[in-house]
Amino acid sequence: MFEYVSIRDIARRAGVGVSTVSRVLNDYPDTSQQTREKVLRIIREVNYRPNSRARQLVKNTAETICFILNNRDVINPFHSRVLMGVARYARTLAKNVIFMQFDYPPDAPPNRLILPLVIWERGALDGLVIAGTNYPNFINAVKALRIPFVVFGNNLFGDLQIRDLHSVWFDNEGGTRKSTEYLIELGHQNIWCLVDTTKPWYRRCYDGYCQAMEQHQLRLHKLDVRIEDSPFNAGVEGAKQFLHLQPQLSAIVAGDDEIALGVLSGLNQNGVRVPDDISLVGFDDIEGLKFVRPLLTTIRVDKEKIGEELAKLLFELLQNRDLPPVKRTVSTELLVRESSARPGRGLGSNGLSIEVVS
Amino acid sequence: MFEYVSIRDIARRAGVGVSTVSRVLNDYPDTSQQTREKVLRIIREVNYRPNSRARQLVKNTAETICFILNNRDVINPFHSRVLMGVARYARTLAKNVIFMQFDYPPDAPPNRLILPLVIWERGALDGLVIAGTNYPNFINAVKALRIPFVVFGNNLFGDLQIRDLHSVWFDNEGGTRKSTEYLIELGHQNIWCLVDTTKPWYRRCYDGYCQAMEQHQLRLHKLDVRIEDSPFNAGVEGAKQFLHLQPQLSAIVAGDDEIALGVLSGLNQNGVRVPDDISLVGFDDIEGLKFVRPLLTTIRVDKEKIGEELAKLLFELLQNRDLPPVKRTVSTELLVRESSARPGRGLGSNGLSIEVVS
DNA sequence: CTGAAAGCGCTTACAG
DNA sequence: CTGAAAGCGCTTACAG
């Protein structure tokens, strides 16, 4: 009773040709009002739903892109929102988004990398949004497949020729420069930067920090740690080291919010108050900040915007395969909250009165 | 130079029929070793990649399911992990997962609901994992489409006939019973439950709480709030009310972790210490807990497991469309951390010495 | 073991 | 404005 109804059935019932039905379905202008209405009525009557797969086969398009999250076992809040941005933009174009998680060894040669079937086969995908943490071998393997792709740039390792890529970035360097400058304007001078310079993204952070410091002829202070699993724990450890640097040290720029929260936790545990004793700024504006007091001053990154820009760029590329490589950057915004203040406030509690000359 | 190679090209080059190539591609046993090798060699030579869309059209399968996140503007950490679970399970079966976000009004009749195209059309999907917050109208609209689906049960509104549905749940009731019993065993008697009973999931929480309390013949205490946007803020507000109930009140069972963190923050702001003055337990074991001290005692929910069970059930259903409706429940686990302790500890700080008789 | 043919459900020139 | 035919790239009986 509930059989599959095809375009042929509609044509038969309406007493017209299959092509006429197709024309009606696709809103072509060259059909008489009368046949048009008859066909539409039948379509509604039998609740006909066209088969998109057949359409896609003929038109040689998948109407689908893939969001691939590489080398992350969980989609973190940051990437979650990037995905939402991609999905939202795709939706405005009535395109689908396949979500896929994938792990690969950074050192496997591109031609040995076994890519997910959905990418390797033809027909399933029009293009690819490459997110997560990435290495050149994967990018090159995808390139060899000749499938259009865009990449989320910030978590890219290795010296890829960025000018050969379509990529979207957020401004890690500019953002950290902004937050560092803000601290300097508050009157801080002894500002430390806590990062892991083996990671390009933290390196860009550090660069931004350096730019601000150098411009004000302040001395650079870097605490360079190795972050593997938990940026938070790295922050806690870092805090211990900062303890010895007090009270000269008056402000800390952390590579991201999670590190900053670790620092905050570590400082609190040792009786150091933020922002009274030390000012602290993070980066990203992650969701979890709302759970912690003082509210962290940070650099806001519009993650959904990044997703939207990734999708937008990919669809532009699908429209025009010869689009020259572009690198787009999403700007950032300083969010002043509670973890930063003018320096010296806390020293008063030690019985010292300090004049701050700024 | 890099033209599209089809199965026909392979056949021509190998000097065999198209069906033979197909048989080789699909690893059918009935091909001679010799032709087999010849075909495989050519396939490798020209780097042939079959077109999955054509295969799907013939075999009438999409090899794809859809994870639809309803009525949530962001994929929160909980649902993120459910999605990961779905994706991981699908991957073991070489199936794709389309991610889609969708909003709909709870009160639109099912036949007026405009479903996403990918669901409404044929061919794009084999089945649907329905996640997010849901109402009967959507479920019924999907039902009318005759597309196999499974639903994440916990955030379902309205009195759907659960026994007509394929659903996966986590044990909200049992979990809260467990955490309440744990508090009782610690010696707490005046235990409050903070929930929003207009939401079925919090109601189940409250039921679990009641079961534990009644079994020990303790008096029920409910703080019933309306939670719209921010469970955290609801927790902060709730904390203010709890202040008046001290010191009789000695423990709080919150509807979920985010509420609990709000309570914690609210109590802290008012100088009430957790767990010294009040013990506090949450539910979910969300990611963000790690940022907050004391570490919250909570009920762990294996979110990826939920995702896996959803996918597993859906694929079972695709194998056997007559599978009778089942409701599967993922169990929970009590995670004792730092926010809970024996009652009365804190009273000592008021100069009182209390003997706890348990 | 193998190939020619039909067919999956559409779209698109083409001819009328 | 409309329909018959060819074709998208596969798989699958069917016949040999």
Main sheet strand line-up of chain A: 2-1-3-4-5-11
Counted by DSSP, the helix tally of chain A is 12
Helix and strand composition category of chain A: alpha/beta
The top level CATH class name of the largest domain in chain A:
Alpha Beta
Q: Greatest contact pair? A: A-B, 54 and 54 residues
| Biggest beta sheet summary of chain A | 6 strands, parallel
Q: Residue share in helices of chain A?
A: 25-40%
Counting copies of identical and different chains, the oligomeric state is homodimer
String of helices and strands of chain A: HHHHEHEHEHEEHEHEHEHEEHEE
Silhouette of chain A: elongated
Indicate how many domains the architecture of chain A comprises.
Answer: 3
Number of strands of chain A: 12
Return Rg of chain A in Å. 27 Å
- Proportion of strand residues of chain A: 15-25%
Q: Any idea what the CATH architecture of the largest domain in chain A is? A: 3-Layer(aba) Sandwich
Task: Find the CATH topology of the largest domain in chain A.
Answer: Rossmann fold
Give me the CATH superfamily of the largest domain in chain A.
Answer: Response regulator
Q: Please, what is the average pLDDT of chain A?
A: 92
